[in-house]
Specification:
Number of helices: 7
Helix content: 25-40%
Distance between the termini: 88 Å
Oligomer: single chain
Structural class: alpha/beta
Number of strands: 9
Strand content: 15-25%
Radius of gyration: 24 Å
Shape: globular
Length: 256
């Protein structure tokens, strides 16, 4: 049999051991929290329904085939649906989603992913070809965010403002509604801050309540991209959630 080591821990050794144990516990708790957030079990943002009673989703082909009655039955009132991107791309699920969402009792709107590499006029033509004028629809949305290397190498503001203005004016003329501008806080600061004052803003911030750098108020807020709801089965298992900055009565008459 082996000999028993009956040496005792010194006070300093005990403190070191306790510190190591506490550090390991904190690390484990942090990793557990990170996993819960990543898997959508805990949402970093979860605004009060009392404060923001009107909620909705935004979807694209990444959510696959959507069962709209099931999705609509989970406390949402609107859906923004991806229609187009750039001057030629059309979302393969748009026509179905845009037809079925209103049948499930939701107010629907279509959005266009803005391309920094295409003329605004061509992008407007792509959207107008794709999205019919529908009574009661939400205004068209232009999504201004980054893709590829654009965040590291952002295009010049002057160029973006010029082409974006062409696109917005064409959509407003065709649909007789002023479009909504969607942006991340960084793309807003670069391209929208201090301008486009006549357009409503849909801002993304999945960490905290958004604050726009020019003090402007937002109309829609995308507060998480990690929600998990029933009613869709695409390659993307999460769904984006949004709130409207107003009451149910105000939303009912929003944009006519």
């Amino acid at each position: 049999m082996g000999k028993t080591d009956d040496r005792k821990w010194s006070p300093r050794g005990k403190r070191r051991l306790l510190a190591l144990g506490a550090g390991a516990a904190v690390l484990l708790a942090g990793l557990t929290l990170l996993l819960l957030v990543w898997n959508g079990v805990i949402l970093l943002n979860n605004p009060s329904r009392a404060q923001y009673p009107v909620r909705g989703v935004d979807v694209s082909s990444y959510q696959g085939e959507i069962d709209w009655p099931t999705l609509a039955g989970q406390g949402i009132q609107f859906a923004f649906i991806k229609a187009t991107e750039g001057s030629s791309h059309v979302d393969e699920r748009f026509a179905y989603n845009y037809e079925q969402a209103p049948k499930a009792g939701l107010r629907a709107g279509a959005y266009h992913f803005f391309s920094y590499d295409s003329p605004g006029e061509n992008q407007a033509e792509n959207f107008i070809r794709t999205v019919p004028r529908v009574q009661g629809a939400l205004p068209p949305v232009v999504d201004v965010e980054f893709y590829g290397d654009k965040e590291k190498n952002p295009p010049a503001r002057e160029t973006v403002v010029r082409e974006l203005s062409v696109l917005l004016e064409a959509l407003e003329e065709h649909y007789s509604m002023r479009p909504i501008l969607y942006a991340t806080e960084k793309s807003y600061a670069l391209y929208l801050a201090g301008g486009f004052a006549e357009y409503d803003i849909w801002i993304r911030n999945v960490l905290t309540v958004p604050t726009l750098p020019d003090g402007r108020e937002w109309t829609f807020w995308q507060y998480t991209n990690r929600e998990r709801l029933a009613g869709y089965d695409g390659k993307e298992r999460y769904i984006d959630m949004n709130v409207f900055a107003g009451t149910a009565e105000e939303f009912a008459v929003y944009a006519g």
